[in-house]
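Reply to thread "Modeling small-molecule complexes from scratch"

Following up on the discussion above, here's a worked example others can learn from. I took a protein sequence and the SMILES for zinc ion and predicted the complex. Inputs first:
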Amino acid sequence: MVTVIAQRHPHWCDRERCTARGSRGAHRSAVVTVDPAVRIDANLYSVASAPETVLVEFRCGERVLSGNAYGLGRILVSLGKAAR
Ligand SMILES: [Zn+2]
């Protein structure tokens, strides 16, 4: 007999970006892009073994990060709204 345990996902989890399988992998939200020309992406993230601990992943070039505090602030506000 095989027992299948349903994976629980945080409400913000984007199933197409989620790699959580049991206690391995990670949940990820949809990516927020503030300015496509500058290309700063961010998303919520939590490891499958501790889904209650929500982290933020940023992806951008090193030069972009130092000069775009306003854009980063907008990302954090958007992610905060998504996490509610
Ligand atoms: Zn998930």
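What I'd highlight from this example: The pocket of zinc ion is lined by residues 9, 13, 18, 20, 27 (CB under 6 Å). The longest strand covers residues 41-47. Questions welcome below.
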